[in-house]
Fold each of these.
Amino acid sequence: MPDHGLTRARTMGPIAEAVRMAGGSLARVFGRAGMPLSLLDTPDRLILLRDQLALVEAAIREIGDPALPARLSTATGIAGLGPIGTQVRSSDSLGAALRRVETVTPQLLQTATWTGLRRRGTEAFYGYAVTERIEAGRQANEVLALGYLLGTVRHFLGAAWQPERAVVTGAHLAARSEIETLLGCTVVLGPRAGLVFPAHRLDAANPSRTGACGASADAPIGSGLGTCVAHLIELALDEARPSIDGIAGRLGLSRRTLQRRLEAEGMGYAEIQRRVLIRRAETLLAADRLPIGRIGLELGYADAAHFSRAFLAWTGLTPRRWRDSRRGGPEA
């Protein structure tokens, strides 16, 4: 079974803005996707890829616009790819850029996906696929991705460039004519989503090469079930202390299956949760904005005394002494 994919919360920003502009309810959209609205204030946090797909579907339903994914990504273009856009703009040629995107996308933007280049005789296929077994929202996510693929190629071939055709998976595509207008080409149904264009265009030079290819402000996303569990626990802390059953449910697993798979990776749920709680506690204490009792409540403790005892066991310091040490203040 493939790892559960992760992606950065910044991918939801344009979706949320579109819902706002259409007069829709963000609370309802995020509620349907099972996600907290606080994610909009923390764009560098990681979420499950399946949650992003659910959010896109919820936004389409909220504002009644099946072409929304294509509208968003074609309007945003390469700027919506964040660090991937930097990789593209620093490549010598279109072909080099697409090969680089294939390497860095699962490291910096989203895991459990493939974005890459395949040559088929005189044709080039710049494709995108979700490798995790997710069906809900898959096609809408592919349409969203096509607009970003289009923006990548247009950096080299110009804003008016159009592919020969685009491909999405599935048996039916809603709002096909509108999506075709937005992408500037015919859209057909096939086994894998992507853009098709003449292979000789891969030699096109970068008209405005900038920056160094290796640099990125984003740390690699990482992989593995333990990583997903840690991020889900951290995300759930925005609302309440999560349970192992709740986290297992979010991953589509039973409690025992989750425990067994974590054990196979040499870890346990309790230890992962402890590390997340320590990290969140230290972040809140270092920010120096909330009283210690409130921080304890944020982390799911009944009162400051329970939190202080737990923090002392974790670090060897009380929360107050830890905070004072960060300020350079007294030890006592």
Amino acid sequence: MSRFFYQLGETLSSLRKNVAMVASVVLVTFISLSFVGAAALMQIQVNQMTDDFYDRLEVSVFLCTESSSASACPTGAVTADQRENIEEMLQNGAASQYVSSYRYESQDEALQNYLAAHEDSVRAASVTAEDMPESFRLLLHEPQEYPVVSELFAAVPGVENVADQQEVLESIFGILNGLTVVALIIAAVMILCTVLLVSTTIRLSAFSRRRETSIMRMVGASKSMIRTPFIMEGVIAAAAGAVLACAATWVIAEFMLGQWLPQQVPGVVFISAQDSWIVMPGLLLVAILLAALSSWLTVRRYLRV
């Protein structure tokens, strides 16, 4: 125990002597791990949004109108018999095994939804109900089965086309995943800077204490006794930066994702501060392991004992 307290005292003494360098390590570690934490939170958010949106993913079976092209609707606008046949497919036919629920949207309802979504558009004023197609909006048991459902309705009389929101969602999630990758690349560069800065700090600390190290070597101190304070110095500085990064991660999750964004983007379920606690142990572990490894390699190379 006395040996541990001696090493801790030596470490704290060295930290006081190298305040500027230690502060640099703390700040660089804080910034780099904050990027890592933000990227991790973003990926958790993307995964949650993916699950949430895919659970609500609708497949739209658009019916033929008077203005539909002849190639898509050779028989013209959908008839009552054709509409009933499509609904029978959804209730008891081939498509029923894939559809968990469905709803019918008339031309008037389609117009009202269009006007609500494009109320500021100049073109909206000239759109009439006859311009809007009737449709059946389907929720599937498994969103991945969309190609099967699309194929079932592709050649059904009265159906103009079948569409889903998956392509749009995949492009959005692709952008979000790209931002995650960018954040991780920046974090990787910053972590490399942290490792180099820790190594430089330990090297300068070893140089400034070379006289003390020589005396300890002469009185028979073991290698671990001499090297441990230097390694602890790097670990403590990096751990302090990691604690700040954990605090920043919690702030992002609590105030930005938990409070601000839900007000700006209603209807989207955002992660909460609880999810940040999943990320924090990883940030601390990364900081301690990288600092310990870089300090140990530096001590082995520049501190001959």
Amino acid sequence: MVQNISQTRPIVKYQNGKLQEEDDEIVTEFPITIHINGEEFATMVCTPTHLEELVIGFLASEGVILFKDDIADLKIDESQGFAYVTLKSKIQLNQQQYSKRFIGSCCGKSRQFYFQNDVRTSKTSMTKTVIKADECINLMNTMQKNSLVFKNTGGVHNAALCNPSDIIVDRTDIGRHNALDKLYGHSILNKIPVRDKIIVFSGRISSEVLTKAAKIGVGIVLSKSAPTDLAIQLAEDLNITTVGFIRGQSFNVYSHAERISSIDEAQMS
């Protein structure tokens, strides 16, 4: 059974001094539990699209796998909300770097850099990519225009894996981490090199989001929202360029600004 991305529900809306009944489109919230080698590993709450990418991206970000070939078998039962993963090698899921935990769709502390595993799997960027200021703005505008689910529901995060000039793939999810995991899973499944790529993101750049970008391996993160102080500290340490508040024709660069070129600089080069 394929789950719907959204559902139409009757609501009562207040507008212009009046209450009136109408239909509204509500985004679907879907739990999926991952079992690895017969043992429960984690439950995520997500938007039920691109579930294979989500599972693979999540396992890669947790350091369980490095490549698609590490998986002997992957079966997803959408009707029951389970993903069954068989790895080619045995792992001890009760090791210190793993912790079985419920991962919600909200913006709480569901995944943090404080886990030993996050320190182990985060990568220092070695990218040589430089992006023009107007390309930052164009990528953000394009990603936002592409998200029909956000336009219809207002209840999801958007993320895109990009070159400076265009979007390679974009994904949507109620969970900001999930949207990034889907990008990671897509790049693993399609063997897309990510070192020179850019992530464009609709939400706040928290330490968890910055860590997720570091695990994926990109060196530039663009957002329409703000970063946190810890995210900026991590970005400085991991050599990642962070750009926030991309709105209209302006934005702020918070770390490693050498990868952002202005229109004047581009014309001089």
